[in-house]
Amino acid sequence: MGWFRGRRKRRDAGTAGPASGAASDVRQASVAEGPDAHGAAGAAELAGAPFGQEPYPAAGTSVPDRIPWRHLEGGAYERLLGPLADAEGVSALLDYCALDSAWEPAAARALIDRSPPAGAALNRLVGKEEPPRAESAEFVGRVVRALSLLPAEEAVPLLVRLAEQKSGLSAASMPTARAAVRALAAVPGELVPPALHRLASESPLAALRKAAYAELKRRLHTLSDAPEWTVDTFGLDSASQVRVPVGPRHVAVVRVAIGGKVQVRYHESQGRSAGDGRALAGRPTAATVDQDAVQGVTALATELRTAIRAARTRLESAQKERREIPVADWLEHYITHPVTGTVARAVLWEVRAGGTETWRLGLPKKVEERWGLVTEGGVRIVLQDGDVVRVAAPVRVSAAQARGWKQVLAQAKVQLVLKQIKPL
């Protein structure tokens, strides 16, 4: 009998009188539109609603709001949206996001297409500063999915913001950030691969780098298809340096050394093509010096340091994930690149010949104008088409092997940028 009374109370609560106010009137009007306002999936869900939750009434019948997104967290989302909450089609879209049913992209897209302000409303939700409460988890997850259905130029920056945890919706939730990465990968168009690549290479969080890289691999045929997979060269030549005139008598030489250290040196010079003259201890102070050019050199050095940090992060991620890279991509995007190469050549790599399961460890070395690897014993490994390489994981070596690596690194004047050799 107690169970029956409880069930009766719930049913009575579900048929209580409508809320007062303009927002309630809008919700009643939305319901009066019938199931079409929520898409076919929403109609099917509500038609099979559990006991105590009635299906859509006949047109014109006033009923209370049964999908309480407006009441989540004490009305936080309704207050955040302001007038947009009652804009054309917005309530129907967010009602669908609050439904406890299977997500149907076609139904959600139809609701977005019928709501011109949908993009602005979703943008406003992404701007939420406070992290959502547990009661809003399902609603937030479906809002993230809805974002992927916006035009690419709107969806990509919003989903990147969520993935980078720069929105209150995802700031304290790694699952929401990863969901944003998956939603980003579902957006069609050429804006997505560069965004995924940036997340995969520059995110400070390993979990997000891994998620973005996995989606990027699924999205692209090869990694070299990514429009921004190759880091900007910043005008550096094959020796990883560039000369920048800073006046008629002075030149700045910006160089990235092996290991990724950015160096800026000023010299006396008579022009761009002239050899470096007397080195200066610091910036030139002559009246003929172009101060704007000097500031440009400083900005270039800053950009290079940022690119080097991103390259190192990318290599750390590749090491942790045991990421395999085709030799052709390795040569083009890592070893011979004037920026990334300065870090990639200070890392131990493993190579596996095509059709084999054996991995061999070596340091990048150029012999007879051809890049390969050299072992701790000085043995050269020639790379072939079809081979794959990966960043070597930390390995424990014998005392003799440790001495061999120490000698190889000293001869190459290289200090490893990752922890890879651990003596026994």
Automatic annotation (TrEMBL):
Pfam families: DUF4132 (PF13569)
Superkingdom field: Bacteria
Residue span(s) of domain DUF4132: 277-421
Region (Disordered): 1-62
InterPro entries with a match to the protein in the record: DUF4132 (IPR025406)
Compositionally biased spans, kind Low complexity: 14-24, 32-52
Chain segments annotated as transmembrane: none
Protein name: DUF4132 domain-containing protein
